[in-house]
What we know:
Blueprint: H1 3-19, H2 21-32, H3 42-54, E1 59-62, E2 68-72, E3 77-84, E4 104-106, E5 109-111, H4 115-134, E6 141-148, H5 151-154, H6 157-165, E7 172-175, E8 183-187, E9 189-198, E10 202-203, H7 213-225, E11 233-234, E12 238-239, E13 241-248, E14 255-256, E15 259-268, H8 274-285, E16 291-293, E17 296-297, E18 309-310, E19 312-313, E20 316-317, H9 323-336, E21 342-345, H10 351-354, E22 362-365, E23 379-381, H11 382-401
Parallel strand pairs: 3-6, 3-7, 7-22, 8-21
Antiparallel strand pairs: 1-2, 2-6, 4-5, 5-23, 8-20, 8-22, 9-15, 9-16, 9-19, 10-14, 11-12, 13-15, 17-18
Helix pairs in contact: 1-11, 2-4, 4-11, 9-11
The structure holds zinc ion.
Amino acid sequence: METNSITELVTQVEAxxxxxxxxxxxxxxxxxxxxxxxGQETPAVHRxxxxxxxxxxxxxxxxxxxxxxxxxxxxxxxxxYDAHLDTNEVADENEWPHPPLQPTIENGAMWxxxxxxxxGGVAAxxxxxxxxxxxxxxxxxxxxxxxxxxxxxxxxxxxRSLIERDGVHPDVVLLxxxxxxxxxxxxxxxxxxxxxTKGKAAHASQPHLGESALLKMLPVMQALESMNPNLPENxxxxxxxxxxxxxxxxxTPNSVPSWCEVTIDRRMVPGETMGSILNGIRAxxxxxxxxxxxxxxxxxxxxxxxxxxxxxxxxxLLEENHPLISTGxxxxxALWGKAPKLDVWQFSTDGTYSAGVAGIPxxxxxxxxxxxxxxxxxxxxxxxxxxxxxxxxxxxVIFDRS
Length: 402
Ligand SMILES: [Zn+2]
């Protein structure tokens, strides 16, 4: 496509984003008003499906994991837009300046639960697709828009199900989590490790007959803590860390405890694997008589499926000169005449599966701002919401061209 026609196209995309803005805003308000805690996304999924039909998706469906999906086009390259519908739970409603489920527009922003994580992203990708459809922009690409489930509790599990169970294989994935209209190319990973010591139960009045698993755990905990300065390091993400976050044992105050278990929250840099993590920890705790494992996380979809899997969420980093990043830069440049910032996320996303496990090039771009995520002043700026839809409309055209 000529430079001229891109300029023309940008003008059309901008006009369409304005023409569709009221509908986009209404859709965002509608999904904010629907409570959709993780595993309880049914009404939000149905509302999103209705919107995907209304904007002209050629096919809409709910997959095994209960994600809302819409498809546009028939080209050979599959582009997946992912933004999740589930939100974290409100801790104290009294802290909220506006009731969390009553979307309110104030100071040019829509306020409400999930506005910045990640319902603003859902409204951005759905309306990016709407603009694409309205302008009949076609190419050798197929676009799948996904209102994802389960992200807050088990990021990547619903995306894994779409790809591995339902056989949808995207060439690239775009995540509409908070980036404030800039680009993200990676994240730290996280995992859970459980370390256990075994002892021998005895009545607390005769401790010499038993063996305390709790006392055995003390040097283990010290050894785990002292691993911190030597954990793997990465020039972009810095050093990994681990925190002993829970301790458990039998709930019998009048006995010598026969077992003790600590849970470790470990933050990882890209490249660390389940094997490398467990080997490192076992080398430290096994000589002290303890065992270590990465537990399975119980994951239940709103459609009643069990998607249990290891509580392991690898980090990832897309190389700086990857064509997907160039396409993101070109799209922003064409729309707004300047290069976006390129950074990495502090938090974990569905990219832990797409990029971290499946190795699919993954890029983050969203209208939301990180400072409002999981906060009582949760909000998304509406002008940024409109602009994000422009990005998501133009991206496939630039992608197809490059
Ligand atoms: Zn999120």
